[in-house]
Specification:
By secondary structure, this protein is mainly α. It has one domain. Helix content is 72%, strand content 0%. Helix 1 crosses helix 5 and helix 4 packs antiparallel against helix 5.
């Protein structure tokens, strides 16, 4: 029966969470630079240093309060700045820039699944931390990927939708952006967000779990321990 202290749980979660947030944000900037916008690069935001991407409210205060009040963690990092005016084809290119974040989370979840296989092959005291971090990495990257694909600006999925939909649909959707975060919070606190996204999250996590070399029962047990369940 796996048991972890609070300090051990924090140690397991720190690296997967920081990587998930940091690489997600930096990916936006990398793709924006590819399409002609140097804003993030000039401001020093194309860095894997997590301190450059932490938002005191969205990365620390809100997740802490939500964990204490609801047991569910929700938050955001400081967005990497992108100036669409510098992009060669602003609407199309912004869709690619937005899609880069969730795609980065997909790649990281796959990477963590492979690391779980490595940890299982090593085994013992050396392999177990890799397996634990891999399960945490799959979970947090799946959450970020699925949440950000919700077609609601300013989430990445909303910006992708604005970039690919015809004007008659894209313009009304784009006007929602100033109110998007409040809509998202309302969906969260009413439970509607979980009802919409959780079934998808469960299926995606199961797909990644099948690549880890762990049984479904072992994966679920580790995740329950890490989440305090």
């Amino acid at each position: 029966m796996l048991e972890l202290s609070l300090a051990q749980k924090i140690a397991v979660w720190v690296l997967p969470v920081l990587l998930a947030i940091t690489v997600h944000e930096v990916s936006h900037g990398w793709v924006a630079r590819h399409f002609g916008d140097q804003t993030a690069s000039m401001l020093g935001r194309l860095s894997l240093n997590p301190l450059r991407h932490i938002d005191p409210v969205g990365t620390v205060l809100v997740p802490g309060l939500m964990l204490f009040l609801t047991g569910f963690v929700f938050g955001w990092a400081k967005p990497v700045p992108v100036d669409a005016r510098n992009l060669r084809r602003p609407r199309r290119d912004m869709a690619w820039v937005a899609a880069a974040g969730p795609f980065a989370n997909l790649c990281m979840a796959l990477g963590w699944a492979l690391l779980a296989q490595l940890g299982g092959a090593i085994g013992g005291w050396a392999g177990q931390p890799l397996v634990l971090m891999a399960v945490a990495g799959i979970f947090i990257n799946t959450i970020l990927m699925v949440l950000n694909l919700l077609p609601l600006p300013p989430l990445d999925g909303g910006r992708v939708a604005v970039g690919v939909l015809p004007d008659r649909l894209a313009r009304p959707l784009a006007r929602i952006e100033p109110f998007g975060i409040w809509i998202l919070l309302a969906l969260l606190f009413t439970g509607l967000l979980g009802g919409i996204l959780w079934p998808i999250v469960v299926r995606v996590i199961a797909a990644f779990a099948s690549l880890t070399g762990l049984s479904a029962q072992a994966f679920e047990h580790i995740l329950r321990v890490l989440l305090g369940g």
